[in-house]
Amino acid sequence: MKDLNKRILVFIAVVVGCGWFGKIIDLLLVGQPQGQSLGSLIWLVVPCITAVLLAVVHKSEYKTLGLKPNFKGNAKWYAVSFLIFPGIAILTISIAMITNTIDFTQFELQGFVTTILTWFIYNFFRTILEEIAWRGFLQERLILLKVNDWMVYFIVSLVWTLWHIPYYLFFYEGNAFELVLSSFVLLFSWSILYAEIYRISRTIWPCVLLHATSNAIQYTMLEHYLVMDEKMKIILSPTISLVACSISIMVGLYIRKYRLSRNVAS
């Protein structure tokens, strides 16, 4: 157990520091493009690489990265993972329509569908890297240590947030201050849902679907096909609003209740 604790601490230290190290690399190099620099690549891939290396060094842990798809008996969890964020988007957009707080004047179906599919494919491969790190390595090791469920949610979301901070500050063009302040609440709500989907299915792949669909919807909304009233975004945005976070938490806790009632081994 001491060795496992050390591996978790090493992982957290590397993950929290890699984005800052990436920024230092960018400062040493000339002409690095915003958002696509070597530093941003370091920030993105280092958590996954660290997780895999730590698992390979301890060969008995390699099979506990959640890479096996476990399709048998998990069809409903794959379906839930694929449909939950589109469902939240339909609900929040419908409420925005009823309250007349969304503008469809720039909506164009073909462009919208092409954009969301493109973002989904891009994020599917990108989020594999994240889910190996957060669920396959960090969460799984916390489970092996028999950490309390709520502490698992908290630790994973805290490390996830600390990893995002240099991204918001250095590699993203949005309002970094607002993103840093809101990210822990968002990622904590997601961590409950993602954690329980992982624990009930024992594989990262439904979480990859969750992550890819949520990011695809979020990035598509930034393309202004649908323009929501700024004052209502915090309440009704399809992925990062109070409504979306609340539903994520409720679904996650329902799956937890189901898992515990079925005594699912995890």
Write up what this structure looks like.
The chain is mainly alpha-helical and 266 residues long. It has one domain (64-261). It is built from nine helices and two strands. It has helices spanning 2-28, 38-57, 75-98, 109-144, 149-171, 176-201, 205-221, 230-236, 242-261; strands at residues 102-103, 227-228. The protein has a two-stranded antiparallel ribbon with strand order 1-2. Helix 2 (38-57) runs parallel beside helix 4 (109-144), helix 3 runs antiparallel to helix 9 and helix 5 runs antiparallel to helix 6. The protein is globular. It starts with a helix and ends in a 5-residue tail after the last helix.
Quick overview of this protein structure:
With 266 residues, this protein is mainly alpha-helical. The protein has nine helices and two strands.
